[in-house]
């Protein structure tokens, strides 16, 4: 996948790639503005100099940041709003609901921090419920890219639209980019065996940066693996096509477990489906520090944890859930 609008290399992390794309985005879209609350301001100083008045730092005032974005949108501007996920979604949630949603104006929200990228910063910087909260508001599209190239593609696509979009950046990434067309794509198939019908093998849907973990966790399991970078609204047609008539499905998301449950249930409402949702558990709050990998392992989102959950979909257990895979996280 080529990088639109910039020569920035795919070796950049998602956050750095986002910053690198803003200059060409502002060049290409005269109606675009960037609204910050301190986070990112220093790294965008040159962009602000090149585009006077179009990079606005409101200070540590996240509610005001969304209000300013809503005001800009009401005048016909297209704001790109950026900070850590809990300060972009949870703290100003009422402003998302009123200043953007109730006014029915568009904006592009771009978060960093994911669920626990800033694990050493403590619970204040963690937001595993962010996607569920945004998806609860009408009219939003949620993108969860799995690679820096996907970040670039999604940003350039949304800059040319008028709706409300949330782009969730993560420190975790897949080795290679995948399509960003909003659809569910089959990544790995299996031979279902003689006489087996379509969809006979269980399907594992990986969202965004969970794909490489899912591929490693299921390498020797008789399951198919699919991918999407846009979990909301979910590609119901694509999911139904891949799931088959009697689906066994696991949905692996890097945020609150079951966030996509309602959309999956609606897509498969007429089928006797067995569904396992894998994500950050709703009844667990980690109250100690550690690395992002430590948090992933504690929440069952590492290779071993995902494997244990997916194994419940297959007819027999394959191998040992702890067969040395705990440390096999993708780089």
TrEMBL record:
<dbReference type="InterPro" id="IPR029061">
    <property type="entry name" value="THDP-binding"/>
</dbReference>
<dbReference type="InterPro" id="IPR009014">
    <property type="entry name" value="Transketo_C/PFOR_II"/>
</dbReference>
<feature type="domain" description="Transketolase-like pyrimidine-binding">
    <location>
        <begin position="12"/>
        <end position="177"/>
    </location>
</feature>
<dbReference type="Pfam" id="PF02779">
    <property type="entry name" value="Transket_pyr"/>
</dbReference>
<dbReference type="InterPro" id="IPR051157">
    <property type="entry name" value="PDH/Transketolase"/>
</dbReference>
<dbReference type="InterPro" id="IPR005475">
    <property type="entry name" value="Transketolase-like_Pyr-bd"/>
</dbReference>
<protein>
    <submittedName>
        <fullName>Transketolase</fullName>
    </submittedName>
</protein>
């Amino acid at each position: 996948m080529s990088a639109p609008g910039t020569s920035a290399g795919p070796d950049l992390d998602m956050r750095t790639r986002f910053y690198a794309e803003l200059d060409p985005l502002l060049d290409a879209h005269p109606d675009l503005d960037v609204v910050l609350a301190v986070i990112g301001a220093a790294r965008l100083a040159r962009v602000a100099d090149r585009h006077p008045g179009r990079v606005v730092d409101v200070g540590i005032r996240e509610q005001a940041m969304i209000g300013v974005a809503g005001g800009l949108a009401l005048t016909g501007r297209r704001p790109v709003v950026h900070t850590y996920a809990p300060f972009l979604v949870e703290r100003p949630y009422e402003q998302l609901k009123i200043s953007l949603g109730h006014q029915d104006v568009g904006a592009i929200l771009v978060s960093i921090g994911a669920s626990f990228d800033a694990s050493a910063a403590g619970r204040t910087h963690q937001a595993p419920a962010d996607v569920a909260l945004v998806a609860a508001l009408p009219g939003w599209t949620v993108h969860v890219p799995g690679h820096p190239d996907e970040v670039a593609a999604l940003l350039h696509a949304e800059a040319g639209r008028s709706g409300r979009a949330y782009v969730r950046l993560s420190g975790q990434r897949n080795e290679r980019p995948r399509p960003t067309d909003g659809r569910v794509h089959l990544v790995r198939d299996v031979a279902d065996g003689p006489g087996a019908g379509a969809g006979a093998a269980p399907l594992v849907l990986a969202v965004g940066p969970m794909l490489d973990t899912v591929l490693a966790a299921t390498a020797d399991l008789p399951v198919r693996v699919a991918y999407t970078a846009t979990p909301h609204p979910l590609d119901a047609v694509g999911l139904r096509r891949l799931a088959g008539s009697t689906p066994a499905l696991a949905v692996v998301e890097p945020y609150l477990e079951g966030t996509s449950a309602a959309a999956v249930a609606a897509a498969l409402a007429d089928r006797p489906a067995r569904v396992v949702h894998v994500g950050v558990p709703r009844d667990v709050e980690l109250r100690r520090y550690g690395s992002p990998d430590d948090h992933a392992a504690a929440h069952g989102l590492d290779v071993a944890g995902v494997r244990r959950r997916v194994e419940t979909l297959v007819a027999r257990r394959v191998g040992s859930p702890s067969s040395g895979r705990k440390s096999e996280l993708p780089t």
